[in-house]
Amino acid sequence: MGVIFLPKCQSTEDETLSTIYVAERMTWQDGYDYCKSKRKRLKYISPSTKAAFRDQNPHIASDVTFWTAHKVTNETVTHGKRFYSEFPLDNIKDVSSPLLCVYLVYEADNKRVGWEAGECHDNSVRYPFFCDIAFPTDKKSMTLYEANLTWPNANTFCEKIDGSLLQEMSGNTGLELGDFFHSGNWSNTRVSSFWTNHTLLDHVTTVEQWPIDKTSNTTKLEDIYCAYVILKGQVDKNIVGWMSDFCQNSSRSFLCEKESDEFYFEPYENYKPVGLNVLFEARQLSVTDCMVKCNATTEVGIPCEMFVWNSLNSTCYFMNYEEIVLNISHGYYHEQRITNYKFVEGLTTYKRYSNT
After folding, report:
1. Whole-prediction pTM
2. Which top-level group of life is the source organism from (predicted)?
3. Residue 239 pLDDT
4. Do strands 20-26 and 127-134 pair parallel, antiparallel, or not at all (unpaired)?
């Protein structure tokens, strides 16, 4: 599937996963700043997104125009000239020429998607826009402890190391935890559940879907229950779920989280992903350079979710997922997060996480 565009603001319970449509016309820079204030970025138009807008919106009767996350060098385009090629990515490449900002143009009469470019700060060039991907500003370092402790003891342990039991409940965190336990660092552990920082008044004895949406403000442990995460084998499709139990009379593993200065990249040596969209390649880079470039690419709104490093020629291939949907009840999310890999000697895939 591609991305379904809605004609009005689409809000969900988890705003980090929703796409926001802003009808007010702004300059590109003002639109970018607005999205950034919402922990989002302007919309990235992948090849599949472009095709989906064309194929899945037959009801649109008039032309549509909105800003995107893309930029293009002014040496290759002319103001106001329309192009029908894939959307340019000059703002994430090493170019020295001044850049123009790109807006999508949908031609309703012939169902065609094109793009044009204009000055980013020009008050006479104003368009509406979508705020899309949730940019993770709060990077976390997560440590899983297999020891079985009561909730109060686990909570005290995390606090002593200047951390806390798991607090983050975003959809992105749920997806990443699923990855960690399905194929990542924690896939070989025997942990089947672990405590979180959340407490509630209800004793939840059947698995609930992520995120934990019930909380209690009381501090009396005898009056509340403590929430814990249930892992892959007990929940369909390797997605994390949660339940609650007695805080003082039950024991289980726990996860401490702390603030981190860096994103985490998990390496898969001698493997490359299959079926992902290649954004661009860059030569003569170290692995560290590639990590910096991947982070900078995501910062401007072009999601870099992993890169492949070729140790033979020091080349990086920056990639992201193409399979995305916009669902009325769940908002914007990746439809398929599990990546298939192919053995290729000399290549290492580095998958990017905001939590580790």
Report:
1. 0.69
2. Eukaryota
3. 64
4. antiparallel
